[in-house]
Design brief:
This protein is α+β, with helices and mostly antiparallel strands. The chain has a single domain, classed as START domain (Alpha-D-Glucose-1,6-Bisphosphate, Chain A, domain 4, 2-Layer Sandwich), CATH 3.30.530. The chain has four helices and seven strands, in the order αβαββββββαα. Strands 1-7-6-5-4-3-2 form a seven-stranded antiparallel β-sheet, with helices on one face. A hairpin with a 6-residue loop joins strand 5 (92-97) and strand 6. It is globular. The model is unreliable at 1-17 (pLDDT under 50).
Length: 185
């Protein structure tokens, strides 16, 4: 390898999640709105905590960098900085955490036409490097706070938020157990 190639390769940012080390999460939903609208809501990163339950705040630092603050567990707060690495308006956004962040993460969101013109297919793909490796993954899996479970719930809330303007939930509502119903004649 020549000196110019070595210099160029060493100048590239280090991957935020080393190949083979991360946990992959992917989820898709079909949303009954056009891609342009959905993209614009997602692209305003400060909207993300509205439907991503574990996020407290996303602060836009500049056109390509954001600071994320989250509370993945009751008494644990964490933050990480990301950089946008690619974007095509109304089609996709990809990002990764910068070197030195508390969380190693890389991901993308894709907006594509749904079959038969029935809205937009929104697909999020993420690779997450847990802070303590496999131990963190086991704990998060047991508590339903693993990346796949969180992503699935976040995307369901995102669909609700986009289609209705609100997050629909049955959380905290009774399930109807122990209620007797009397037949009326």
């Amino acid at each position: 390898m020549n000196t110019k190639t070595k210099s160029f390769l060493s100048s590239l940012p280090k991957p935020s999640v080393k190949d083979g080390d991360g946990i992959k999460a992917e989820y898709s939903v079909t949303i009954l709105k056009d891609a342009s609208f959905i993209y614009s809501v997602w692209r305003n990163f400060e909207n993300l905590p509205r439907f991503m339950k574990h996020l407290d705040e996303v602060q836009v630092l500049n056109d390509t960098r954001t600071l994320w603050r989250a509370k993945p567990f009751e008494n644990l707060e964490t933050e990480w900085e990301t950089e946008m690495i690619a974007e095509t308006p109304d089609e996709f956004i990809s990002w990764r955490s910068i070197e030195g962040s508390e969380i190693s993460i890389a991901g993308s969101v894709h907006f594509s036409p749904a079959p038969r013109g029935q809205g937009t297919q929104v697909t999020v793909r993420m690779m997450y490097g847990p802070p303590l490796g496999k131990i963190t993954h086991v704990i998060t899996k047991l508590t339903k706070a693993d990346p796949h479970s969180l992503l699935r719930e976040d995307m369901k809330r995102f669909k609700s938020y986009i289609e209705t303007g609100d997050i629909l939930s049955t959380e905290g509502q009774p399930r109807g157990q122990g209620i007797e119903y009397k037949k009326t004649a």
